[in-house]
Design goal:
338 residues; alpha/beta; 434 Repressor (Amino-terminal Domain); Rossmann fold; 3 domains; 6-stranded mixed sheet; 42% helix; 16% strand
Length: 338
């Protein structure tokens, strides 16, 4: 018996079950009695929603990320943990890695520790097919699950995400409208966010009726910390005769490697090569020139996800999905038409 079963038996929504279990006053007495009768009948002991009944609650939130050394993920954890702590919650952090079985095991471990909720940090937890994502659906039947910068339509799953498709589309259009058509799209992830960004780049090319050349879409398989590796990768493409006047990168680390590549080969930025990154991270200001990048509103996303989490645990009706718009921040690696 879980909250899905309770909602089905009582003929009410999962949100209503949550409000009943949390002692929310925003439930009709007759509905409350109906839900509590089902709970009593089946001997259900609430886990994540026990706050209102004073049962089992750990007053803790599980946070799972793939790799805490990643600049984007570590910053997100900093924002999320700090804000949860201000709201009286303790956090349990684990790093799952990127392997599917390891991610599934990490989520199961958090659920077994009976945390009040689980936050999945990063878009790599959402795969392209529903069957692979079933482990999240199963977890959400026992505890609310919150996704940072990913989207999934499932009861008891809540999302705060940036519209990476539109943001990357706008970045690509800015380059095209500045007169550059031979744009190298450089990416390093097939995650939910990675797929959305690639789709945005393709869409911009279609809007401006440009042929999408396969050799101008390059996947970098190296470490997210290996800026020198990105530089060598681009040098290799140049040695093979690939010509490009811009690098549009799916994250700032790749863009930093592109700047290093240009300097190594005596290519003037932005006159001979334009570079755009993604995340508007600290790396953009450490570069010379500073890197134009998409600000995907990470801090706002994290604060919103925590607000949603607190609201759900308090039995409030919260939106299942909130989408933020990214913003292209112009710096020294581009000369774009404003």
């Amino acid at each position: 018996m879980n909250i899905y079963d309770i909602s089905k038996q009582a003929g009410v929504s999962i949100a209503t079950v949550s409000r009943v279990l949390n002692g929310s006053p925003n439930v009709k007495p007759s509905t409350r009695r109906k839900v509590m009768d089902i709970i009593d009948q089946y001997g259900y002991t609430p886990n994540a929603f026990a706050r209102g009944l004073g049962l089992d609650t750990m007053n803790s939130i599980g946070i799972i990320c793939a790799d805490s050394s990643d600049l984007y993920l570590s910053k997100a954890i900093y924002y999320i943990e700090g804000n949860l702590r201000k709201n009286g919650y303790n956090c349990i952090l684990t790093c799952s890695g990127y392997n599917h079985d390891d991610k599934e095991a990490a989520l199961a471990m958090m659920i077994n520790r009976r945390v009040d909720a689980v936050i999945l940090v990063g878009s790599n937890y959402i795969e392209a097919d529903d069957e692979t994502n079933r482990y999240i659906m199963n977890a959400a039947a026992q505890s609310p699950v919150f996704l940072l910068n990913a989207s999934m339509d499932c009861p008891n799953v809540f999302c705060a995400t940036c519209d990476d498709f539109k943001a990357m589309q706008d970045a690509a259009l800015a380059l095209i409208d500045s007169g550059i058509t031979d744009i190298l799209y450089l990416y390093n992830s097939h995650s939910y966010s990675g797929r959305r960004k690639l789709g945005g780049y393709r869409s911009a090319c279609e809007i401006r009726k440009l042929d999408i050349a396969q050799d101008l879409m390059q996947f970098y398989e190296g470490s997210h910390e290996d800026i020198d590796g990105v530089c060598r990768f681009l040098c290799g493409l140049r040695a093979q005769g690939l010509v490009f006047r811009a690098v549009l990168a799916s994250e700032d680390m790749l863009a930093a490697g592109a700047v290093k590549y240009a300097k190594k080969n005596g290519i003037a930025i932005p006159d001979e090569l334009s570079v755009i990154g993604y995340n508007n991270s600290l790396l953009t200001t450490c570069s010379d020139p500073e890197i134009t990048s998409v600000d995907n509103k990470l801090e706002a996303l994290c604060f919103q996800l925590v607000r949603t989490c607190i609201g759900v645990l308090n039995g409030e009706k919260m939106p299942p999905k909130i989408i933020y718009s990214g913003e292209l921040v112009h710096k020294g690696t581009t000369r774009l038409v404003h």
